[in-house]
Design brief:
Elements: H1 2-15, H2 18-25, H3 29-43, E1 48-51, E2 54-57, H4 59-86, E3 92-98, H5 105-116, E4 121-127, H6 129-137, E5 143-146, E6 155-170, E7 191-193, H7 199-210, E8 217-220, H8 224-232, E9 238-241, E10 252-256, E11 262-270, H9 278-291
Parallel strand pairs: 3-4, 3-5, 7-8
Antiparallel strand pairs: 1-2, 5-11, 6-9, 6-10, 6-11
Length: 292
């Protein structure tokens, strides 16, 4: 810390003796004398009056001592504050999550984290996956709960769960009674999905490519809950992750989709961040929350 580079002057000003100050600081006398010489040369004046081996802090040195003492105090306070912020037990945790996870998984994680770490301050933000990744990279967030796994450099990822995919249809739909279905069996339906570039739309397009299909999307919405509401109303069908209790609305059936693709959900943070701090605690919290 910068305060370590300044504290030697305070010790010298206190003892007014190079030998005594060097002994306290654990450095050779010659090293301390050179430090003082460089400092006086940079400032352009002497800070001590010399009396043989003894020194006497002059008026210029007294001014500098007062300012350095104040600076060291502020630097030490700053270091303590930063350490507090880095400690999830007592500091600030900036936690982001996707809108689609805000109705079930994120609240479970938040509840468990606050219960286990009551002295921590947690700041929340919701958004789409691409925005959350940008916030993590820009150090506007400590960790984000999102999907899918990012491919960019500088980010770390830990998977929390994988959600199977399902075809969401109205309860009176001809496919509603099936135990499983392929996407091709609904190729003639009006599909509802998220806009291009969002995770649910990407999954729909990937499954369609797997089966050699071109699935046009008739209606778009950013919110999965809105998409399910449109299915209930009979507007169309949707490819959605299963396992989200808040998407299981009355009037819909989630028919398991015959595909190897899943929706992966996990925590992402900057790769240069210590996994043992915020991400590690939130990862453990998320897994415990899912385990009940």
């Amino acid at each position: 810390m910068l305060s370590d580079d300044l504290s030697w002057f305070l010790e010298l000003a206190e003892t007014e003796h190079v030998g005594d100050a060097a002994a306290v600081l654990g450095v050779p006398q010659s090293t301390l004398s050179r430090r003082l010489g460089r400092l006086e040369h940079r400032i352009g004046t002497t800070l001590f009056d010399r009396h043989g081996r003894s020194l006497a802090l002059n008026s210029r040195g007294q001014v500098l001592r007062r300012r350095i003492r104040a600076a060291v105090t502020q630097l030490d306070l700053g270091e303590s504050e930063v350490r507090r912020l880095l400690d999830p037990e007592t500091g600030l945790v900036r936690f982001d999550f996707m809108h689609s996870l805000g109705t079930w998984l994120a609240p479970l994680v938040i509840h468990r984290f606050v219960r286990d770490h009551p002295r921590a301050e947690i700041r929340l933000h919701q958004g789409i996956g691409t925005e959350l990744l940008e916030r993590v990279i820009a150090d506007e967030s400590d960790v984000a709960l999102c999907s899918p796994q990012p491919t960019g450099e500088g980010l770390a990822w830990r998977e929390v769960l994988r959600q199977p995919l399902a075809l969401c249809v109205p309860v009176d739909h001809p496919l509603a009674g099936r135990t499983a279905v392929r996407l091709s069996e609904a190729a003639g339906e009006r599909f509802i999905s998220t806009p291009t570039g969002l995770n649910s739309r990407d999954l729909l397009e990937k499954v369609a490519r797997d089966e050699g299909l071109d699935i046009p999307v008739t209606y778009e919405s950013d919110e999965l809950s809105t998409i399910v509401g449109l299915v209930v109303a009979g507007v169309g069908v949707a490819l959605l992750p299963s396992g989200d209790p808040h998407l299981q609305l009355a009037g819909t059936v989630f028919v398991p989709l015959l595909t190897e693709r899943t929706r992966e959900v996990g925590l992402v943070w900057r790769a240069d961040q210590d996994v043992r701090s915020t991400p590690g605690l939130l990862l453990a919290t998320a897994r415990h929350a899912l385990a009940g």
